[in-house]
């Protein structure tokens, strides 16, 4: 699938990062002189966040290909994400240029925060293929995307966005600013009044959100939170008790304070005092780390955004494994992430096991023990492991795992992994015994003929002697060695 991105700012860069990290090449057009630097920094932040978020091996990243024109960017594209500034005349001009060069079958998704599909489609050649695909920042982490426009194009856009870990919400009726921004603007207007009237500072308002109801919203939203507030009687009781308060004169939501120089200076000054100790990139990384922690907690509870993360991670685990060209089998490669490095400055010990575990998963997929097989109630469990740490590896190094099958019978198979650095030297080796099990019964069972035949074919290639260390445990320390 060919992806094109028109615009590489905060939102466009986030889209580019999500597609690239999902394994897609993205052709980008953005005339801004700093566009490549901005997208590169967003991609670096996104890579760091994904490495912390997912336990599964990430797909091989796609490439960012810079185009010199819109026509070059969208040629042969299947999906085009438009993220130019929020001016309707500009969007009309950009869409016209896209349509002049893109295939008629290409879907055009607009990141617009407020314009309706009917407005974007004015004078379009193929209006039905233009939809709103409005995300939230950071696009590479927050999965929700408001899809507005209906029809086959909205369905296809939703399928594409789901495939890269998004959570499309199809909005049946178009409305200015869609759903999310209407809710956010209500809070934003009220917050501006609170600062304007000297009732609260920017930090006090943020504290009430992040130490209070913002935490509830992150995992249950608005209506589910208020359902709990109604007690055992639920939502009906809550509405009966608090509904009349909506008519009280609490709010100024229909008015906007004048954003004159005085108010702008007050807000900017308070914001500097609150957060000015950090650069924007530092704040982005702090935000991303916090989001990753929230996502992981929700994944553990199989709730909210955690379900989206779990589904995306399952797709990563169920990756396609390319057929190896020789033996030992090279089924898994990875690169040492910055978060894998410990206080000694090199990859920490449990990450060696992770790399070998990912190589074992690749071997299982290679022999046919994949997600579809496991869904039948059969799997392979590792019951014994021995790792030898041979060399230090540092952040950024690429690692290749070579795998040998050292033996098998009807219920067991024995693997040997060698983790190699780019120069071919061994960084570590691991030996693993796996047991074929009935996951429902919780006991070992013989493998079917399909798996045994696959293991037989691999075993026939293993003609060299086993490594000398194979089958050995941790060496004993003699008393004389301890004294010396």
From TrEMBL:
Keyword set, alphabetical order: Cytoplasm, NAD, Oxidoreductase
Checking SUPFAM superfamilies in the record gives:
6-phosphogluconate dehydrogenase C-terminal domain-like, NAD(P)-binding Rossmann-fold domains, Thioesterase/thiol ester dehydrase-isomerase
Q: What residue stretches are annotated with the 3-hydroxyacyl-CoA dehydrogenase NAD binding domain?
A: 2-171
Among its keywords, does the record have NAD?
A: yes
Q: What is its EC number?
A: 1.1.1.108
Cellular localization per UniProt = Cytoplasm
What pathway or pathways are given for this protein in its record? Amine and polyamine metabolism; carnitine metabolism
Decide whether keyword ATP-binding is in the record: no
- Specify the superkingdom: Bacteria
> Which Gene Ontology molecular-function terms are recorded?
carnitine 3-dehydrogenase activity
UniProt domain 3-hydroxyacyl-CoA dehydrogenase C-terminal: residue ranges: 179-244
Q: Name one Pfam family in it.
A: 3HCDH
Outline the segment boundaries, as ranges, of region: Disordered: 462-484
Task: Summarize where NAD(+) binds, as residue positions.
Answer: 7-12
- Per the record, the major location class is cytoplasm
Catalysed reactions, as listed in the record:
carnitine + NAD(+) = 3-dehydrocarnitine + NADH + H(+)
Report quaternary structure and partners.
Answer: Homodimer.
- Chain's role: Catalyzes the NAD(+)-dependent oxidation of L-carnitine to 3-dehydrocarnitine.
Q: What protein family does this chain belong to?
A: Belongs to the 3-hydroxyacyl-CoA dehydrogenase family. L-carnitine dehydrogenase subfamily.
Give the matching HAMAP family: L_carnitine_dehydrog
Name by which UniProt lists this protein: L-carnitine dehydrogenase
């Amino acid at each position: 699938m060919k992806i094109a991105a028109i615009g590489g700012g905060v939102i466009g860069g986030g889209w580019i990062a999500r597609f690239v990290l999902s394994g897609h090449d993205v052709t980008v057009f953005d005339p801004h002189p700093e566009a490549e630097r901005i997208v590169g920094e967003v991609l670096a932040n996104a890579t760091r966040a994904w490495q912390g978020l997912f336990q599964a091996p990430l797909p091989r990243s796609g490439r960012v290909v810079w185009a010199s024109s819109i026509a070059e960017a969208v040629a042969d594209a299947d999906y085009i994400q438009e993220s130019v500034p929020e001016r309707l005349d500009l969007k009309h001009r950009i869409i016209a240029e896209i349509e002049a060069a893109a295939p008629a079958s290409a879907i055009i998704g607009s990141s617009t925060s407020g314009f309706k599909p009917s407005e974007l489609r004015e004078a379009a050649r193929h209006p039905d293929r233009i939809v709103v695909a409005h995300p939230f920042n950071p696009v590479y982490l927050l999965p929700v995307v408001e899809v507005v426009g209906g029809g086959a194009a909205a369905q296809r856009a939703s399928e594409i966005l789901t495939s890269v870990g998004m959570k499309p919400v199809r909005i049946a009726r178009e409305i200015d600013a869609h759903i999310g921004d209407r809710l956010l603007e209500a809070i934003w207007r009220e917050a501006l009044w609170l600062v304007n009237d000297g009732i609260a500072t920017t930090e006090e308002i943020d504290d009430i959100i992040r130490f209070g109801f913002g935490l509830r919203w992150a995992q249950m939203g608005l209506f589910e939170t208020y359902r709990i507030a109604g007690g055992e009687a639920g939502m009906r009781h809550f509405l009966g008790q608090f509904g009349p308060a909506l008519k009280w004169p609490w709010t100024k939501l229909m008015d906007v304070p004048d954003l004159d120089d005085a108010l702008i200076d007050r807000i900017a000054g308070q914001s500097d005092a609150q957060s000015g100790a950090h650069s924007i990139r530092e704040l982005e990384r702090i935000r991303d780390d916090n989001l990753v922690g929230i996502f992981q907690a929700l994944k553990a509870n199989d709730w909210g955004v955690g379900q989206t993360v779990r589904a995306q991670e399952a797709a990563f685990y169920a990756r396609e494994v390319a057929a190896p060209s020789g033996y030992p089998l090279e089924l898994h490669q990875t690169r040492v992430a910055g978060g894998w490095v410990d206080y000694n400055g090199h990859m920490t010990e449990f990450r060696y096991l992770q790399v070998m575990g990912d190589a074992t998963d690749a071997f299982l997929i290679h022999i046919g023990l994949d997600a579809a097989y496991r869904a039948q109630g059969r799997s392979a469990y590792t019951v014994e492991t021995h790792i030898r740490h041979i060399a230090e590896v540092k952040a950024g190094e690429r690692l290749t795992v070579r795998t040998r099958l050292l033996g098998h019978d009807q219920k067991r198979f024995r693997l040997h992994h060698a983790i190699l650095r780019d120069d071919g030297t061994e960084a570590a080796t691991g030996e693993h015994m796996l047991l074929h099990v009935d996951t429902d019964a919780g006991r070992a069972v013989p493998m079917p003929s399909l798996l045994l035949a696959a293991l037989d074919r691999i075993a026939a290639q293993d003609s060299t002697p086993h490594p000398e260390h194979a089958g050995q445990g941790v060496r004993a320390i003699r008393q004389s060695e301890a004294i010396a």
